[in-house]
């Protein structure tokens, strides 16, 4: 078996000691050993301890692991583990000369995340805040369209503050991905949903994951959280198109000659872009053709996968100078969580992840609503995918209202959030 790094040092050393008869332990098969060995016998911490411990728990095995990794491993509820600082301690335990304590305690992880940012920091933009709330409640992808200085980035950065708190399973699966790349995890705030904001110069490998020894990319590090792509047209088109399949499946498969790896990538996408290469399409500094060339850097199939699109206006001086208190993240999150748990109770998932068969059960439209949507779809030239996404958004709006059925009002509001498509239609008239 190829040895990658030092994580198997302790296992190899114990294997040699058992094979040579220096350790006699009939139950050796019930243990897992992780850790890098120093020349003096010290056991050092290793990466990817969480996935290893999760696998050991599934097999009901006890883990010998480095003391440096014990606090992180304790996040896995119910796993049996023994923390060691040297191979001498392992020796003493296996020979029953100096048994080590068996750790199974689980830290108190019920506290809500502590956020440094808050939605109340953002002045004005009630329409954009409404869309942010809908996206958080239903798990919908979102596009902000507007000139510089309208608050697109500020709003995106505060998305995680209004999303429901991660469950134990979600938090563990996200922490496991960070464990693989060796990034430290704040154990006091580990339930906070991740927010990833890669630069537009990043490669497809950096975004999706890869290298000769496959590692998770930005979309996997945003698992159960937010992936924010600012200046969307500045990304290479092939980089954006590499997201299309993960956006549908929630996973990414990386194939190499020697191995194939699958990482989770159930992220919520927020994108932002200026409506023109000059910043605003209303400043008349770029022709319609130039604006179209700029916007066409983003492919139609990619835009098709974004449920909510809204244009942000410039703030007036009155709005900028307003001292009126804005709604806090906690207030919005309370409404979001009510709608979120309603969806989980009804269908076991958020509305954005419903397939067509599930929609026929949970997103039923009355004849009048069907007729209205058919007319709107024809007028707006909605693709089949966009058609279904409008219904899912309407379902989320209904859930936020606590309504059992989707009405015309919810459909009209959902159809209103197609700003990018309206801009393209407007430009094609010239």
UniProtKB/TrEMBL annotation:
Keywords: ATP-binding, Nucleotide-binding. Coiled coil: none annotated. Residues 138-316 form the AAA+ ATPase domain. NCBIfam families: YifB family Mg chelatase-like AAA ATPase (TIGR00368). GO terms for molecular function: ATP binding; DNA binding. Pfam families: ChlI, Mg_chelatase, Mg_chelatase_C. PANTHER family: COMPETENCE PROTEIN COMM (PTHR32039:SF7), MAGNESIUM-CHELATASE SUBUNIT CHLI (PTHR32039). Belongs to the Mg-chelatase subunits D/I family. ComM subfamily. InterPro entries: AAA+_ATPase, CHLI-like, MCM_dom, Mg_chelat-rel, Mg_chelat-rel_C, Mg_chelatse_chII-like_cat_dom, P-loop_NTPase, Ribosomal_Su5_D2-typ_SF. This is Magnesium chelatase family protein.
């Amino acid at each position: 078996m190829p040895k990658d790094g030092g994580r198997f040092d302790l296992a190899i050393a114990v294997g040699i000691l058992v094979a040579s008869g220096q350790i006699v332990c009939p139950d050796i098969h019930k243990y897992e050993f992780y850790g890098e060995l120093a020349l003096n016998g010290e056991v050092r911490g290793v990466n990817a301890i969480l996935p290893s411990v999760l696998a050991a728990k599934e097999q009901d095995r006890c883990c010998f692991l480095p003391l440096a990794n014990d606090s992180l491993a304790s996040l896995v509820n119910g796993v049996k583990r023994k923390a060691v600082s040297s191979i001498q301690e392992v020796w003493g335990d296996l020979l029953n000369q100096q048994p080590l304590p068996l750790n199974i305690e689980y830290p108190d992880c019920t506290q809500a995340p502590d956020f440094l940012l808050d939605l109340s920091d953002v002045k004005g933009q009630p329409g954009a805040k409404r869309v942010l709330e809908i996206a958080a409640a239903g798990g919908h992808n979102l596009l902000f369209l507007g000139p510089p200085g309208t608050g697109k980035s500020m709003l995106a950065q505060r998305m995680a503050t209004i999303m429901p708190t991660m469950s134990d399973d979600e938090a563990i699966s996200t922490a496991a991905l960070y464990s693989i790349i060796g990034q430290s995890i704040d154990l006091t705030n580990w339930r906070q949903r991740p927010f990833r904001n890669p630069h537009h110069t990043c490669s497809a490998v950096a975004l999706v994951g890869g290298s000769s020894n496959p590692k998770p990319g930005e979309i996997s590090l945003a698992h159960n959280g937010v992936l924010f792509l600012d200046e969307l047209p500045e990304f290479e088109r092939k980089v954006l198109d590499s997201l299309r399949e993960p956006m549908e499946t929630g996973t990414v498969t990386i194939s190499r000659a020697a191995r194939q790896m699958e990482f989770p990538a159930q992220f919520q996408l927020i994108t932002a872009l200026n409506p023109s290469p000059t910043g605003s399409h209303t400043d008349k500094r770029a022709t319609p053709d130039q604006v179209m060339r700029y916007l066409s850097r983003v492919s139609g199939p990619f835009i098709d996968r974004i449920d909510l699109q809204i244009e942000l206006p410039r703030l007036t001086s009155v709005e900028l100078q307003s001292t009126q208190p804005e709604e806090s993240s906690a207030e919005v999150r309370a409404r979001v969580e009510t709608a979120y748990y309603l969806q989980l109770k009804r269908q076991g998932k958020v509305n954005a992840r419903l397939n067509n068969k599930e929609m026929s059960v949970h997103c039923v439209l009355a004849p009048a609503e069907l007729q209205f949507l058919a007319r709107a779809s024809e007028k707006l030239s909605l693709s089949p995918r966009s058609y279904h996404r409008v219904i899912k958004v309407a379902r989320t709006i209904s859930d936020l209202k606590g309504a059992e059925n989707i009405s015309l009002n919810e459909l009209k509001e959902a159809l209103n959030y197609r700003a990018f498509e309206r801009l393209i239609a407007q430009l094609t008239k010239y």
